From TrEMBL:
One annotated GO molecular function: ATP binding
Superkingdom field: Bacteria
Transferase recorded as keyword: yes
Species of provenance: Kribbella albertanoniae
A Pfam short name: CPT
Keywords: Transferase
Name of the molecule in the record: Chloramphenicol phosphotransferase
InterPro entries per UniProt: CPT (IPR012853), P-loop_NTPase (IPR027417)
């Protein structure tokens, strides 16, 4: 969900705001019914103008148990994984990072306010899950 950073489609940006609102209302509804919810969502505010989507979404979760996890991985590792999986998608012919991939990598960690952070280049998926579990238990 969302659009690539850079404001390429300002005509669609109001729909993005609505789609995120709907998703977070659904998340909140599930949580209020006592269900544990895990959401894999990425946010940025690099649209044609700042939209404030993440703060608005978090307001929809006010009063609910929420843990915001920052998942990091250096761009060179991300691109190596993309190359291994998709054969080089994300690179220009000269082997440099394409603008959309580089912009995305920077924009999704701005401002970077997390309850816990993991780095998938340093930790395995199981280790990342353990770091998150420990943070949940220490609340």
């Amino acid at each position: 969900m969302g659009l690539r950073p850079g404001g390429e489609r300002p005509d669609l940006e109001p729909l993005v705001v609505t789609l995120y609102a709907a998703m977070y209302d659904a998340i909140a509804a599930h949580s209020r019914l006592g269900l544990n919810v895990v959401v894999d969502a990425v946010h940025h505010d690099s649209y044609s103008a700042p939209l404030g989507i993440l703060p608005a979404c978090l307001r929809r979760l006010d009063g609910l148990p929420v843990l915001i996890v920052g998942v990091h991985c250096p761009i060179d590792v991300v691109l190596e994984r993309r190359r291994a999986t998709w054969g080089g998608v994300g690179y220009n012919q000269g082997g440099t990072v394409t603008d959309p991939v580089g912009l995305w990598h920077e924009a999704v960690h701005t401002p970077g306010l997390y309850d816990v952070e993991v780095d998938t280049s340093v930790h395995s998926a199981d280790e990342c899950a353990e770091i998150i579990r420990e943070r949940l238990e220490s609340r």
